[in-house]
Specification:
The complex is a heterotrimer of chains A (439), B (292) and C (290). By secondary structure, chain A is of the alpha/beta class. Chain A has two domains: 187 residues, Periplasmic binding protein-like II (D-Maltodextrin-Binding Protein, domain 2, 3-Layer(aba) Sandwich), CATH 3.40.190; 196 residues, Periplasmic binding protein-like II (D-Maltodextrin-Binding Protein, domain 2, 3-Layer(aba) Sandwich), CATH 3.40.190.10. In chain A, 46% of the residues lie in helices and 12% in strands. The longest helix of chain A is centred in the N-terminal third of the chain and has 22 residues. With 292 residues, chain B is mainly α. The longest helix of chain B is centred in the N-terminal third of the chain and has 32 residues. Chain C has two domains: 71 residues, no CATH class; 215 residues, MetI-like (MetI-like fold), CATH 1.10.3720. Chain C contains twelve helices and two strands, in the order H-H-H-H-H-H-H-H-H-H-H-E-E-H. The radius of gyration of chain C is 25 Å and the shape is globular. Classes of the chains: A alpha/beta (439), B mainly alpha (292), C mainly alpha (290). Chains B and C meet through helix 1, helix 3, helix 4, helix 5 and helix 6 of B and helix 1, helix 2, helix 4, helix 5 and helix 6 of C.
C-alpha cells in the first residue's frame, strides 16, 4: 500500500518536473526562407558606422523590397557565433561582419564574391590594395572591406607648437621629438602598447618598424624572417622606446589603455587606428582641436609602411537568399553611402551615435570636400593606406600572432631581443611545418 | 524489501539528469579527444588518431609552460585563500555588533560576475589612473613605481589576489560559522589551564577546523583550476605566457585556433590532474571519517 | 559547572581589558578588519561609482565629479534589451534551482539514509564530473542542441546548468542530512507516515539551512554562468553575463556603461544574499562539521 502511494507521488513529481522543463522552452530560431528578408550579423559596442547603416536601411528596403533584420552580438562573441552557425549550416545569417584576422578560419563558411561581381560589373579596385588583400584568400575575394582602418601617427598640436617641434617623419625624429617633450613637460613622449594577447595588438606598431626597415614576418617560402638582421634591428628600435620616450606602463598596455593614456593627456604621441581621431575631437574631449595627425614614421632613407585592419562584410555559404544578400552588400559599398555618412558626421548633421569617419574607397579618400572639412585627414589617410602592408592571411595566423605577441611582450618586459626572436621563429617554423607548409 | 527499491527510486531523477547533462557530453568530448578535428579545415570530425592528441601535449612546449603556470597559480591561490580565510574567520567570528553586520555583507563579493570583477581590477591596477595602484603607492612608496601586470611575479600576485578576492568571502564564511559553532567550554578550559592564544590556536582551534579546511581546499582547488574570466580580463596570459594557465590554453586551442581534438585532450589532462589532487585530499577525508 | 567557570572568570576579564597588552591587539584587530572590508568592498564601490561617471572621467581616479545617469539611460536604451536578458536569467535560475533542489534532496536523502553498495564511489563520481573543464563540453552540447533544436533557448541553458548544480547540491545537502538524527524519522514512521511525507514535513524543515546553503551556492553558479551561455545563445536566450559583453567593442571596454549594467546585474544577487544570510550561515556550520 505504502509503496504504491510512494510511486504515484514520485511519478506525479516527475510529471511536474517534465512539465516545468518543457513549459519554459522558447521557440528556436531557424533560417529565413522568406525571399525578401535577410539577416545581418553585426558586432555590438557603439560602432557609429553600423548605426548609420541601420538608420539608412529603410531606404534600401524601399528601393529593393528586401527587408533587413540586424542581429547584434558582442564583439568577443562574433567568431564563435559565425563558426557555430557555420558548422550547423543553419543559414541563420545571410551577411556577417567579422574581424580580418578571423577571416582565414571562417573562410569555409563564406561565399566567394567574384562571380557576383563579374555578373554585375562590380569593381573591387575601388578599395586600396592592402585592405582588399585582407579580404582575399586563394585569389578569391570573400568580403567587402567597407569598414577599414589604417595606422596613423597622432600628436599633440598644442605642445608641438609651443615647443617648436615638427611632426616627426623618421623613427629618429620621433625619439628626439619625444625627448624634447619629456624635457619640457611631464608628458611621456609616446605611448606604445606592448601588452600580450588581444589578437596581437602589440604587433601593429612593430610591423611599421619592421616593414619600413625592409624586414618581413615570413619570407617567400613561408619561413620566419623576422629574426634576420633587419628584423632584429627594427625590433630593438621598437622595444628601446621604453628606455627613451615611452612610459613604463606601456609594457602592459593594450590598444585601449594606450589610447586612454594619450586621451588623458599623459603622452604627446600615439600611433594607432585612425578612427580614434573622432574620439579625440569629440565634444567634451580634453584634446579637442589639439590633435594633429601624420603618416607613420619611417627609417631614414626608406619608405614609411603602415598597417591596416578591416572589419569587412561577407555573405555566408549557408545563406538561402544569396541574391538579396549581394544586393545588400552592393548597397553598403556604394561610394555615396560612405561619403554621406562621413559628411553628415563632419557637418554634425547626424546624431552622435551615427558618427563615423571611416572612408575606405580611393575616390572618397581623395575627395576634395571631405578633405576640406577634415583638414586633409583623408589625404594623409590615403597615403597610409597606399603604403600599407598586411599581416599574412593564413589560417594559422592566430597561432603565429599568439607566439609573436607573447615574444613581443617578453622583450618589452626584459628579455633580450635576438634570442627571443630566434626562439619565436623556431616555434613558428615548427608550427608551419606541422601544418605542411614546407612539403 | 520496500527500502531496497525505494532508495533507488529516490536516486533515479538525479542520475537521469546527470547522465544526460554531464556523462553524455563527457563521453562525446572524450571521443572527440581521440580524433583529429581541425575546424579551420572542416566542420566535420576528422580521422581517429587514438591517443595521439594526448601524446602531442607532452612534446608541446606551451603545454609545459601552462602546466607550470597552472601549478604556481593554483598552489598560491589555494594556500592564500585558506590562510587568509582562517584569519578573516578568527577576526570576524566574535560576538560583536559591527562584526555581525560585516558577516552579513561578506558574501556579496562572491556573487559578483567574475568578468566584471576582472575588468574592475584591471582598471584599478592601471599605472596611470588605477585606484589600487595609487593607494598602494601612497601607503608603501617603495611600491609606487611597480607596474603590477608587467612582471611575471607581480602579475601572478595580482591575478592570485583577484581570484582570492573572489573566493575568500565564501570560504571565510565557512570558517566563521565553524568557529562560531565551536563549544566555548573547550576554549575557556584552555584559558584556565594557562594556554597562550597561540597554543590554543594550534592545539585546539586548528585541529577542530580540519574537516572544513579539507573541504574548503577541495572547493578552492576545483574552482581555481577552472578560473577563466579573471585571466582573460586581467592578463590575457601575459606578461609573456607566465599567467597562461591550462584552462585558458584549452580555450585558445579550441576556440581561437580551432584545434578541437587537441583541446579536448588537454581538457582531459587537466581533469586527470584535478582528480589526482582531489583523491589525495579525499583519502584524508575518508580516513578521518569526518565527512562521509 | 559552566556558570561556575564564568563567575570566576568575569572579574579577570575586566582587569585585563585595561592593560596595554590587551588594547594593542584590539587596535590591531580593528585595523585588520578595516583592511579586509576595504579590500573586499573598494572594487565594488568603484564599479558603483564608475556607473555614475561621465565619459570623460571614467579613466581617472576622481571621486568628486558631476554624477550623471547617462550610463543607465544607455543601458535602458532600445538597442540593449535589458528586460529580455533579465527575464532570461531569471527563468534559467528559477527553473534550474527548483529542479536541482527537488532531485538533490531526494538523492541526498537516499544516500544519507540507506545502505547503498558503492556509495563512496557514487559520491566521488558525482563530484568528479566537476573536475573536467567545462569548456570541452561545449562542442558536444552544441552538436546535441543543434540536433534537438535547443540552440538559443532557455531550456538548453537550464539543461546545461543542471549538470553544474546537481553535484554540488547533493554534496552540500547530504552533508547536512547526515547530521539530522534518524530517531526523529523512525518516530514518524511508526506513526504511519509515508516516506515522502516524512521527507516533506519533517526532514525538509530541519534541513532548511542546508538547502538554503545549496541554493545560494547554485544561484551564484547559475547566475554567473558565462561560457555556455556565450556559445549556446545568440539572440533570444541571451543571459545577463553574456549581455555584459555588449559593452566591449572594437574600441575596447565601454567601462562606464558596463559598470552601470553590472550594477543592475548584481543587485538581485545582493538582495537574495541578504534575504537568506541567516539560514545561510547556519547551514554552513551544520553542513560541514559533524
Amino acid at each position: 500500500m505504502i509503496k504504491r502511494k510512494n510511486i504515484s507521488t514520485m511519478i506525479s513529481m516527475l510529471l511536474i518536473l517534465s512539465f516545468l522543463v518543457t513549459g519554459c522552452s522558447s521557440s528556436s530560431s531557424g533560417g529565413n526562407s522568406d525571399d525578401n528578408k535577410i539577416s545581418v550579423l553585426l558586432s555590438a559596442g557603439e560602432v557609429g558606422q553600423f548605426n548609420a547603416w541601420q538608420a539608412r536601411t529603410e531606404e534600401f528596403t524601399k528601393e529593393t523590397g528586401i527587408e533587413v533584420e540586424y542581429i547584434i552580438v558582442p564583439y568577443e562573441n562574433l567568431l564563435e557565433d559565425i563558426t557555430t552557425a557555420g558548422i550547423s549550416g543553419s543559414g541563420a545569417y545571410d551577411v556577417v561582419a567579422y574581424l580580418d584576422t578571423m577571416g582565414p578560419s571562417i573562410q569555409q563558411f563564406l561565399e566567394p564574391l567574384n562571380e557576383y561581381a563579374e555578373e554585375g560589373d562590380f569593381q573591387f579596385d575601388r578599395w586600396p590594395e592592402a585592405v582588399l588583400n585582407l579580404s582575399t584568400y586563394d585569389d578569391k575575394v570573400y568580403s567587402l572591406p567597407v569598414r577599414s582602418h589604417v595606422q596613423m601617427l597622432f600628436y599633440r598640436k598644442d605642445i608641438f607648437e609651443e615647443l617648436n617641434i615638427e611632426s616627426p617623419e623618421t623613427w629618429e625624429e620621433l625619439v628626439s621629438a619625444g625627448q624634447k617633450v619629456q624635457d619640457n613637460t611631464d608628458l611621456s613622449g609616446i605611448v606604445p602598447y606592448y601588452g600580450a594577447g588581444n589578437n596581437g595588438q602589440n604587433l601593429y606598431m612593430w610591423t611599421s618598424y619592421l616593414w619600413s626597415n625592409g624586414g618581413d614576418i615570413f619570407d617567400e617560402n613561408m619561413k620566419p624572417a623576422f629574426n634576420n638582421k633587419n628584423g632584429v634591428e627594427a625590433t630593438e628600435r621598437y622595444i628601446s622606446l621604453l628606455d627613451t620616450i615611452a612610459p613604463a606602463g606601456s609594457k602592459t598596455f593594450g590598444e585601449q589603455d594606450a589610447r586612454t593614456n594619450f586621451q588623458n593627456g599623459k603622452s604627446a604621441m600615439w600611433i594607432g587606428w585612425w578612427w580614434a581621431y573622432s574620439g579625440f575631437n569629440s565634444d567634451g574631449s580634453a584634446l579637442a582641436d589639439n590633435v594633429g595627425f601624420a603618416q607613420v614614421p619611417k627609417w631614414d632613407g626608406k619608405e614609411s609602411v603602415s598597417n591596416v585592419s578591416s572589419f569587412p562584410m561577407a555573405m555566408t555559404k549557408g545563406s538561402k537568399n544569396k541574391d538579396a544578400a549581394w544586393e545588400y552588400l552592393k548597397w553598403l559599398a556604394e561610394p555615396e553611402m560612405e561619403k554621406d555618412i562621413v559628411m553628415d558626421t563632419l557637418t554634425n548633421e547626424s546624431p552622435a551615435e551615427q558618427h563615423s569617419i571611416v572612408v575606405t574607397q580611393k575616390a572618397n579618400l581623395q575627395d576634395e570636400k571631405l578633405n576640406e572639412l577634415s583638414d586633409n585627414f583623408y589625404n594623409v589617410g590615403h597615403k597610409n593606406f597606399q603604403s600599407a602592408k598586411t599581416f599574412p592571411t593564413i589560417p594559422e595566423w592566430p597561432q603565429v600572432a599568439d607566439i609573436l605577441s607573447t615574444a613581443m611582450n617578453e622583450m618589452a618586459t626584459g628579455k633580450e631581443v635576438k634570442p627571443t626572436l630566434d626562439q619565436a621563429a623556431q616555434r613558428i617554423e615548427e608550427l608551419m611545418k606541422e601544418q605542411g607548409y614546407y612539403e | 524489501m520496500k527500502n531496497r527499491l525505494f532508495k533507488y527510486f529516490l536516486l533515479i531523477p538525479a542520475f537521469i539528469l546527470l547522465a544526460l547533462t554531464t556523462f553524455y557530453p563527457l563521453v562525446r568530448s572524450f571521443w572527440i579527444s581521440l580524433h583529429e578535428w581541425d575546424l579551420k579545415e572542416t566542420a566535420e570530425m576528422g580521422p581517429f588518431v587514438g591517443i595521439n592528441n594526448y601524446l602531442s601535449a607532452f612534446s608541446d612546449y606551451q603545454f609545459w609552460n601552462t602546466l607550470k603556470a597552472t601549478l604556481i597559480f593554483t598552489g598560491s591561490t589555494v594556500i592564500a585563500t585558506i590562510v587568509l580565510s582562517i584569519l578573516v574567520g578568527l577576526l570576524l567570528s566574535k560576538e560583536k555588533k559591527h562584526l555581525s553586520f560585516i558577516r552579513a555583507i561578506l558574501i556579496i563579493p562572491f556573487a559578483v560576475s567574475p568578468a566584471l570583477i576582472g575588468y574592475s581590477w584591471r582598471f584599478m591596477l592601471n599605472p596611470d589612473y588605477g585606484l589600487f595602484d595609487q593607494i598602494i603607492g601612497f601607503f608603501i612608496p617603495a611600491l609606487s613605481d611597480v607596474i603590477w601586470l608587467s612582471h611575471e611575479g607581480t602579475a601572478m600576485v595580482a591575478l592570485v589576489s583577484v581570484v582570492v578576492w573572489i573566493f575568500m568571502p565564501f570560504i571565510s564564511l565557512m570558517f566563521i560559522s565553524a568557529l562560531m559553532g565551536m563549544p566555548k567550554e573547550v576554549f575557556e578550559a584552555a584559558k584556565v589551564d594557562g594556554a597562550s592564544s597561540f597554543q590554543t590556536f594550534f592545539r585546539i582551534t586548528l585541529p577542530m577546523l580540519q574537516p572544513i579546511i579539507l573541504i574548503a581546499t577541495i572547493l578552492t582547488t576545483m574552482f581555481t583550476l577552472k578560473a577563466f574570466d579573471p585571466i582573460v580580463t586581467l592578463t590575457q596570459g601575459g606578461p609573456g605566457a607566465s599567467t597562461s594557465v591550462l584552462n585558458f590554453f584549452i580555450y585558445k586551442t579550441g576556440f581561437q585556433f580551432f584545434n578541437l581534438g587537441y583541446s579536448a585532450a588537454l581538457g582531459y589532462i587537466l581533469a586527470g590532474i584535478t582528480m589526482v589532487v582531489v583523491i589525495v585530499y579525499m583519502r584524508r577525508l575518508v580516513k578521518g571519517d569526518q565527512w562521509n | 559547572m559552566n556558570s561556575q567557570v564564568n563567575l570566576e572568570k568575569q572579574p579577570k576579564k575586566a582587569e585585563n581589558r585595561i592593560s596595554i597588552r590587551k588594547i594593542f591587539p584590539s587596535i590591531l584587530e580593528n585595523i585588520s578588519v578595516l583592511l579586509i572590508v576595504l579590500f573586499l568592498f573598494v572594487p565594488l564601490f568603484w564599479i558603483f561609482l564608475t556607473s555614475f561617471k561621465p565619459y570623460e572621467e571614467v579613466f581617472t581616479t576622481s571621486i568628486f565629479f558631476q554624477p550623471t545617469l547617462e550610463n543607465y539611460l544607455a543601458v535602458f536604451s532600445s538597442s540593449f534589451d535589458l528586460g529580455k536578458y533579465y527575464s532570461n536569467s531569471t527563468i534559467v535560475v528559477v527553473v534550474t534551482l527548483i529542479i536541482t533542489l527537488v532531485v538533490s534532496v531526494l538523492a541526498s536523502y537516499s544516500l544519507s539514509r540507506f545502505e547503498i553498495p558503492g556509495k563512496q564511489v557514487i559520491m566521488f563520481g558525482i563530484l568528479a564530473t566537476q573536475f573536467i573543464p567545462l569548456i570541452i563540453n561545449v562542442i558536444p552540447y552544441f552538436v546535441m542542441f543543434r540536433n534537438l533544436g535547443l540552440l538559443d533557448t532557455t531550456l538548453g541553458l537550464i539543461i546545461v546548468n543542471l549538470g553544474h548544480t546537481i553535484p554540488y547540491a547533493i554534496w552540500l545537502i547530504k552533508g547536512f542530512m547526515d547530521r539530522i538524527p534518524i530517531a526523529i524519522e523512525e518516530q514518524a514512521s511508526i506513526d504511519g507516515a509515508s516516506r515522502l511525507r516524512i521527507i516533506w514535513s519533517i526532514l525538509l524543515p530541519l534541513a532548511k539551512p542546508g538547502i538554503i546553503t545549496a541554493s545560494v551556492f547554485c544561484f551564484v553558479i547559475i547566475w554567473n554562468e558565462f561560457m555556455f551561455a556565450l556559445i549556446l545563445t545568440n539572440r533570444e536566450a541571451v543571459t545577463l553575463p553574456v549581455a555584459l559583453q555588449f559593452f566591449i567593442g572594437e574600441e575596447g571596454v565601454i567601462w562606464n556603461h558596463m559598470a552601470a549594467a553590472g550594477t543592475l546585474f548584481v543587485l538581485p544577487t545582493v538582495v537574495f544574499m541578504l534575504l537568506v544570510r541567516k539560514q545561510f550561515v547556519q547551514g554552513m556550520t551544520s553542513g560541514s562539521i559533524k
